[in-house]
């Protein structure tokens, strides 16, 4: 690539940042499609200014004072995190009339080096409240947006100093479209050698769930001396120090002062590389990991080279944050958080897939529709915590009873559906009765309180009882309602003439 192809002085980094933000918001909209999401960044007068993005509408003000009640509350936090606000109490945020507003919004701060530099403002749809939304999804999204903000800011600062900007931008472009972490490390190795010579690149990650350890995630180059997946304690090593402090390190074997270890205490004695540079993936204490560059020979390193590679490592950190975010969002989009079964949207999608497969290959398919008997009485008598506990335990009983090839999901409230593939009504009737018996025999005990639970189950078979998803669920629902009319705590197979409760 010819460096002269890019006009460095007139290069605009704004499109990169806005593209990353739009991608993140699009992902969030796929999980919560009815929300309206806006981005504000800190302006010169300490007010927050609405970013002009394609996702913006007309509901909010273009400038919001930091003295606004919601922002005052957010800025007073020791650690920035999302807060739900009542819209009527924060009228100055909106540009529409009070009667047009929904009841709640979610304000998610974006921070840079401990300072709030912006926020995402998410307006919840009418009739929805805090219990319908998972705040950690929004916090993770803000982390991704914040990483892109820092990266864009770094590009602005570096473009006036670096005559390698065209290469940096090419690195960034490749990193943001790469499909896997391995691709990212390969691209860094390929482009990074324009800036710093190294013989091996190692990516170590520091998971939130095991903060006392870091692990070797990827290796580009000779793997001698390391093993993918190997974990090391965050203790007495240069990599550990970089994780803890959020600062880069340089090791040269010729220096008189020797560290206690590179990856772990004591490994320096057999360490084959004469020079090592470690760049943290985020400039925060106890960060997400370190990119380690190892060389068989020593050489001088310029500060400009360090600055450039710090930017590249920050890009890698932002990318890994997005990988994690996508994975979590995919989980939120398909799994019911209370029961850990498929949610309704994912259940229907799987149902349509299996129904199409059954029709194509003339396979059998059975649907179970389950409804806990008198469940409202449990909530009214013992409270929703006990009700949630019964639902979680019931879902576990269903998982333990059906085959791994079957597809259980939460249909809504205390209702469940199980799609049983490649099985006939007789075999599925036996499975349904085992579920019914297991729930009948279980003593649901929490905080020294024990309740009994029962379930009514309806069964419908494809194609005899219906050829579409709607027909099969309606038939299974009708059979379940028949089971309830006969006292509940039993399994009933659909027969012609049965009607669901909604048509009774």
Describe the structure.
With 504 residues, this protein is α+β, with helices and mostly antiparallel strands. The protein has 3 domains: 3-152, Beta-Lactamase (2-Layer Sandwich), CATH 3.30.450; 160-330, 2-Layer Sandwich (Beta-Lactamase), CATH 3.30.450.40; 344-503, Alpha-Beta Plaits (2-Layer Sandwich), CATH 3.30.70.270. It is 38% helix and 21% strand. It is built from 12 helices and 19 strands. It has helices at residues 14-31, 69-75, 135-159, 165-177, 181-192, 238-245, 303-334, 344-361, 375-382, 384-401, 425-441, 469-485; strands spanning 36-42, 48-50, 63-64, 83-86, 104-112, 115-123, 200-205, 213-220, 231-233, 249-252, 275-280, 289-295, 365-372, 407-412, 415-421, 444-446, 449-451, 455-462, 490-493. The protein has a 6-stranded antiparallel β-sheet, with helices on both faces. It has a 6-stranded antiparallel β-sheet with strand order 9-8-7-12-11-10. The longest helix is centred in the middle third of the chain and has 32 residues, at 303-334. It is globular. The model is unreliable at 1-11 and 160-165 (pLDDT under 50).
In short:
With 504 residues, the protein is α+β, with helices and mostly antiparallel strands. The chain is built from 12 helices and 19 strands.
CATH class of the largest domain, named Alpha Beta
Let me know the average pLDDT: 84
Strand order of the largest sheet: 3-2-1-6-5-4
Discrete helix count: 12
Q: Using only CA atoms, what is the Rg?
A: 28 Å
Which structural class fits the helix and strand makeup? alpha+beta
| Main pleated-sheet profile | 6 strands, antiparallel
């Amino acid at each position: 690539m010819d460096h002269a192809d890019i006009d460095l002085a007139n290069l605009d980094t704004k499109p990169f940042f806005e593209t990353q933000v739009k991608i993140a918001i699009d992902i969030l909209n796929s999980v919560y499609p009815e929300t309206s999401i806006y981005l504000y960044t800190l302006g010169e007068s300490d007010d927050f200014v609405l970013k002009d993005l394609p996702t913006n509408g007309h509901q909010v003000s273009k400038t919001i004072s930091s003295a606004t009640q919601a922002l005052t509350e957010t800025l007073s936090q020791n650690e920035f995190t999302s807060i739900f606000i009542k819209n009527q109490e924060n009228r100055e945020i909106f540009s529409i009339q009070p009667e047009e507003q929904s009841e709640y919004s979610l304000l998610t701060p974006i921070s840079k080096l401990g300072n709030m530099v912006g926020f995402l403002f998410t307006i919840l749809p009418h009739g929805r409240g805090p219990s319908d939304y998972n705040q950690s999804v929004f916090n993770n999204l803000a982390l991704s947006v914040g990483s892109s903000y820092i990266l864009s800011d770094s590009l602005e600062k570096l473009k006036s100093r670096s005559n390698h900007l065209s290469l940096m931008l090419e690195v960034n472009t490749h990193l943001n479209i790469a499909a896997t972490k391995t691709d990212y490390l390969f691209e860094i190795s390929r482009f990074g050698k324009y800036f710093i010579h190294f013989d091996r690149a190692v990516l170590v990650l520091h998971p939130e769930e095991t903060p006392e350890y870091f692990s070797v995630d990827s290796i580009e180059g000779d793997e001698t001396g390391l093993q993918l997946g190997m974990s090391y304690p965050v203790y007495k090593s240069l990599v550990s120090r970089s994780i803890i402090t959020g600062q880069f390190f340089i090791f040269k074997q010729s220096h008189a002062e020797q560290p206690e270890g590179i990856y772990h205490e004591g490994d320096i004695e057999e360490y084959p590389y004469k020079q090592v540079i470690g760049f943290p993936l985020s400039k925060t204490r106890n960060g997400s990991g370190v990119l380690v560059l190892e060389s068989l020979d020593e050489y001088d390193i310029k500060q400009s080279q360090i600055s450039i590679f710090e930017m590249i490592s920050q890009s890698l950190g932002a990318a890994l944050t997005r990988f994690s975010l996508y994975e979590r969002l995919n989980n939120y989009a398909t799994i019911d958080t209370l029961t850990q079964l498929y949610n309704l949207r994912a259940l229907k999608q799987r149902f349509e897939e299996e129904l199409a497969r059954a029709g194509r290959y003339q396979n059998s398919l059975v649907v179970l529709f389950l409804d806990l008997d008198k469940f409202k009485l449990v909530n009214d008598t013992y409270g929703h915590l006990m009700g949630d506990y019964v639902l979680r335990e019931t879902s576990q009983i269903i998982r333990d009873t059906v085959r791994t090839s079957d597809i259980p999901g939460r249909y809504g409230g205390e209702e469940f559906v199980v799609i049983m593939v490649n099985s006939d009504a007789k075999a599925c009737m036996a499975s349904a009765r085992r579920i019914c018996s297991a729930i009948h025999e279980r003593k649901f005990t929490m905080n020294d309180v024990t309740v009994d639970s029962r379930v009514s189950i309806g069964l419908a078979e494809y194609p005899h009882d219906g050829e579409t998803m709607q027909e099969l669920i309606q038939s299974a629902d009708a059979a379940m309602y028949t089971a309830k009319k006969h006292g509940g705590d039993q399994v009933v197979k659909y027969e012609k003439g049965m009607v669901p409760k909604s048509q009774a």
